[in-house]
Specification:
5 helices; alpha/beta; 25% helix; metal-binding; EC 4.1.1.36; binds cytidine-5'-monophosphate; eight-stranded mixed sheet
Length: 222
């Protein structure tokens, strides 16, 4: 793909869930499949982009032509993203755990028969999208985040864009009527500073294709 419109550009894409350790054998996670993030990495690579895909544990194969960095926790994901800088583009599609266990045990927690039940204390994880968006002279030229909303989609997503200081938010309508959750289709709104595009219901692959094309179009003057 050495001739595509994104040849010479570098992208970081985050995908999948994160696993937050409780002890050496247990973790807290979520049900993210990584389908949308992996598809975006694949489509950017097809346009000639040099892509680092930073992904939590998924059942997916590494897309062709993409450098896959496999991580487990949000903190690992942040370090891997920072190691992949500088980049022209960042697309944060991972479902990063909001919290991790603060009192992670160094040894396996034991059920010792005393009836004592361990208490997990949670602490906030770093926000990778916000960190990349506010990375000063290391900030990628285009930073794209995702937002899953069930109501007031445009308003909430737009507020999120401003709070995190990214350039675009791809807002998923995950209200039960759309069947997005766990499915292969997605209905999204792409929200920029003074523009909102409402895309029709599309496969996650088609969303990735259109997003990659939109990114190439945005950077073509570069
Ligand atoms: O705040 P919320 O989780 O709804 O924001 C979603 C967006 O922020 C997604 O793009 C997600 O990848 C990113 N995010 C992140 N690091 C976090 C939490 C969310 O990069 N700790």
């Amino acid at each position: 793909f050495k001739t595509g419109p994104l040849f010479g550009k570098k992208a970081i894409v985050t995908s999948g869930p994160t696993h937050e350790p409780i002890d050496p054998v247990r973790y807290i996670a979520n049900r993210s499949s990584g389908k949308q993030g992996h598809a975006i990495a694949a489509e950017l690579a097809k346009l000639g982009c040099e892509v680092t895909l930073v992904s939590g544990p998924t059942r997916l194969e590494a897309p062709n032509g993409v450098k896959l960095v496999e991580i487990e926790s949000a903190r690992d994901m942040l370090v891997a993203c920072q190691n992949a800088l500088p980049a022209d583009i960042a697309v944060c599609a991972a479902a990063v755990a909001d919290w991790r266990v603060d009192n992670e045990a160094g040894q396996k927690l034991k059920k010792d028969g005393s009836g004592q039940i361990p208490e997990l204390k949670l602490t906030e994880n770093p926000d990778i999208l916000a960190t990349l968006s506010q990375a000063g002279d290391q900030r990628p030229k285009l930073v794209v985040g995702f937002a899953a909303e069930t109501q007031n989609i445009r308003e909430y997503a737009s507020a999120k864009r401003i709070r995190k200081q990214c350039d675009w938010i791809v807002a998923n309508d995950v209200s039960p009527s759309t069947g997005t959750f766990g499915g292969n289709e997605n209905k999204v709104h792409v929200i920029a500073r003074n523009q909102c595009e409402d895309w029709p219901t599309l496969s996650k692959k088609e969303v990735a294709k259109r997003l990659a094309a939109k990114i190439a179009d945005y950077l073509k003057e570069d």
